[in-house]
Structure formats: structure tokens, C-alpha cells
Amino acid sequence: MLFKLSLTGIKSRFKDYLVLFSGLVMAAAIFYMFEALATNNSFIKANSTFSLAPFVFQFGSVLLAIITFVYILYANSFLLSMRKRDYGLFMMLGAKSGKLGQLIFLETVAIGALSLVIGLLVGVGLTALVGGLLIQRLDATAAHFNAFYLPAMLVTVIFFLILFVLAALLNQRVLRKTPVLALLKSAAQPIHVQVNPIKTVIQIIFGLACLVVGYITMHMIGTLQILGIAVALVTIVLGTYLVFDSLFTWLLTRLKRHENFASRGLNNFTLAQLNFRIFDYNRMLAMVTLLFALALGAITTGMGFQKNIRLFTESAPYDVVLHDPTAKVNQAAAKIKVKQQDHYTYKVTGTTVYFVREQFDAQPIYAQKPWQKKQVTAEYQLITGKQMTARSPLRWQSSLQALLLPQDSEKTITLVDQAAFTQINAPTHQLTTLIAHDFFANLAAIKRVTQLDQRQNKVSINYSMGTTKYDAYQMMNGLLSGFEFMGFFLGVAFLAMLASCLMFKILSGAASDRLRYRMLDKIGTRQRLLRSAIAKEIGVLFLLPGVVGVIHVLFGLQMFTTTSLLPNAYHDLWLPFLIFLVLYGLYYLLTVKLYQSIVLKK
């Protein structure tokens, strides 16, 4: 009987549940995708270029799990509010609170399980799509890659089932402590707000002060580190709520007193609508603002990390370094549009590598400069054989060692003249350095030559050890492409969560608002004015979190610029902002259409 009642309750409000838990579906789908890409060990071992990506996606899973937990706790209160009146009626008819507790437990778990199943199906599709894009981007092999990965599915199911059970237990607890009358009248009780000017001013000042402290802390994150993150988190969350709680209430009061504005069209009615649920809206808008900032910030930083690939790649001095190149290697290298090509000979005896000093006089080599404060990437300068002899080996030896084969990279380098070099009884080896006109235009040829050189010299592929542009490209592409995908899909997940919160909060009051709009229609109000009033009311609720969220992101990017994680974080900022705002705008239009379809006559 309880199971039948729970199914009936779900069916009666299926559309409302669907709106609310669309965010949960996306969270489950993206969580599964991150786990499938991060835990497939066979696929990771088969692709050295993918070795850094699992760390990125595991980090994304943890971050998504934390935000999802907060989201479910918040959405849980919405879930309970939809059924409070029904539960109150059941109690009036003699139902025991224990039985109702079991009913709400079943409903919560059933909705969660349904969202999880849909989320897993979407997740498998997303994994196939994103996995294919990542494999293409990282030039990895598709061997052992599987969009349906059972261990990742088990982790996702266990994690979300635990969340749903916790949510159900919380609902039971709230239900038992709520009086029957409060349950019956919960949807029709306005919050009467008495605006105290002094209290409002204090709240505004304190809220803005919290935001300023949070923004300054994010700018000083390199110095404050973990403490800075904790302080920024507390002050920005608190400041956001206080600003909404004080500013929004104060603005409504001021606008209602402004006769020219209030008496224009249906503005007075719109202000009354907002004032009816002002307290709940303040809390909800603060939550949505934080999710908005997280979503926009995730997409912006993800795209910013992708830009860093070129920055770090171009910092390496040489595009390709060849060791004893064969005719086949030279033939492949001829396809590269070379700007500069130098040749050096060396001999290896025991723990020493000998180079000819005169060759460096004729063909200076790039040596790394000492690191300076606030330096983002390594910087190099040309150095001759005479300069190398005059300076300490510490200034140039490591740069030259990095160009050698792994078995010789830790040996001592000695410079000798041509005569002394000829007397050394050891095989002569050749080291060739190439600088292309455009690395990215010649990437395919550079990749081919590098792989041939590694195969010929039996070098295990480990791009983190190399110092060529191709080594830097492979290493940074593996890491930062993972961040790019993670940032984008975290942004999508957070956007779905905030939109579902905002849409549900607005649409949940549509049924009770229908009577008011029908009364306006009966007294002769034009449909155009009614539609305009709805668009304005919902527009305000979408605009306020958007404006404050954008401000949060603009200051939040300081964390990445001051720590040099994203040196050019503000470059081409319009693109991620445009993508996100278009998606956000589509949610706004959808909400307006759904609300109008509920409250207006067809």
C-alpha cells in the first residue's frame, strides 16, 4: 500500500520532480563519466599521453561529489515542500507519522534511483563522446577504452544511493517535527518582512565587507594558500547571502514606494509577487549565485587551461632533438619546415660525456636562465663554447644533459678542443637540434620524427623527462586537456543544478499564482501585459544571481593569475562568458514559457 501511494505521489507531480532532478541526472552522468575515464587502468597503461588525465578527472569527481551533496540537501527541502500538504491530509485522516516516514523514504529513494538510472544511461553516452574526443585530442589509442565500465558504474551507484538514503532520513526527521497545521498551510504562508533601516544598512555594509575580504583573499592566495581558500569560502558565501537578504529586500521596498515605477503597467503586482516569498527567494538566490559562479568559473578556467598548452609548448627552445639519426629519420625530418638546424658530436666514456668546444662557438646552444620571481615558464639564452668554459657548469650543464639520451643524461659533461676529442678512444655520436618555423603547423611531421628517434634508440616514451617542444606539448596536452574537459562538464553540471533549483522554485509557486493571473485576466488585463509581467518577474530572479555571479568570477580568476596557473586568465574572456550566458538565457526562456503555460489561459 505504501509503495502504491509513493508511486501515485510521484506520478501526480512527475513534471515537477523532472525539473528539480534534472540537475541530479546531469550530476550522476558526469560523475560516472569522470570515474570511467579515471579508473580504467588498462586504457591508461596503454596510453602514456593519458597518464596525467586520471588525476584531473578524479579531482573533478571529488569536487562534483561535494557540490552534489550540498545540492541534494538543498533540493531535498524542495522535494519535501511539494508533498507537505498531502502528508498533512494523511495525518488528518489518521495516518501515523511512522508510516508517513516510510512513505517519504520510499518516494525519495524512488526518485533518486530513477534519476540515477537515467543519469547512468546519459553518462555512458557522454563517456563515449568525450572519451572519443579526448583520444583524438591526446592522440591516444582506443585499445581497452569502454564507455560502459562496470567499476565506475558501481562507484557511482554506491555514492548516489548513500546520498539518497541520507536525504530520505532527513525528510523523515523534518516531517516528524512539523505540526499538522503547518504542513497543510505551508504553501500559502507568506513571509512578513519588516524592514528595519538600521539593520538593513548594517547588513549591507557587513555583507559588502565580507565580499571585499573574500576578493582580497583570493588575490593573495599565493601567500595565504589553504588558509586563503578557507577564508574566501566563508566570507564569500556569507557576504553573498547578506547582500541578497538586505539589498533585495531594500530594493523591493524602495521600488514599491516609487510611484512612477510601481504604477506603470503591472509593476506593482510584480513587486507584490516577489514580496510574497521574499525570504525564501533570498536564500535560494544566494545558493543559485554561488552555483552560477562555480559553473561559469569552471568553464572559464577550463578553456583558460587549454590556452596554456601553447604557452608552455613555445617556452621550450628546440622542436626536435635527434640522436645518431639514420637515413630514415633524416628523410622524415626533411618534411619539417626548418628554421634552424645544428649538429654536435660527442663521445661517452664511463660517467663522462665529451663535446667539442669549437662546435658550440660556431653553433651556440640554448641554456636555461636562472628562475626569477613571478616567472611562469622557463627562459633560455644562447651560449657559446667560450662562455660555457668561462662560466660555472651549473649554469649550462643541465640544459645540455637534458638533450642527451636517458642513459647519458646524468653523466658529467666535459668540453674539450677538437684535437683532444679525436684522441678519445670511444665511438662518435651525433646530436642534431631542429627549430621549426611553426611547431603546430609541423606537428604531424615532428611527431613522426620523434617517434622514429625514440624507436631507433630504444627509448621508453616519457615526455615529462624531455625538453623539446614536442615533449612539453605531450605532457601539457595530457594534463591541461583533461582540465579543459573537466572544467567544461563541471560547468554544465553546476548549470543544470542551479537552473533546476531556480526553475523549480519559480514553477512550484505557479499553481497558487494561477488564481491571481486569472483574476487579472477577468478584469480585462491584456495578455501582452500579463506575459510581460511574468517575463519581468522571472527576469529579475535570473538577472540578480547572474550579475553577482559574474562579479565573483572576475575576482575569483585572480587566484589563477597570481599563482601563475593561468597567466592569461582574462584573455579572450568573452568566449566562455558568451557560451555560458547563452545556455543560461535558454533556461530563462524555458522557465518563462513553462510558467506562462501554467498560469495563463491557452
Automatic annotation (TrEMBL):
Pfam families (alphabetical): FtsX
Primary location: membrane
Transmembrane segments: 17-35, 55-82, 103-135, 147-170, 201-221, 227-252, 284-305, 485-507, 538-561, 573-595
Key words of the record: Cell membrane, Membrane, Transmembrane, Transmembrane helix, Transport
Alphabetical list of InterPro entries matching this protein: ABC-4_Integral_Memb_Prot (IPR052536), ABC3_permease_C (IPR003838), ABC_permease_BceB-typ (IPR027022)
Domain ABC3 transporter permease C-terminal, residue spans: 60-178
Any GO CC annotation of this UniProt entry: plasma membrane
Similarity annotation: Belongs to the ABC-4 integral membrane protein family.
UniProt-recorded name of the protein: Peptide ABC transporter permease transmembrane protein
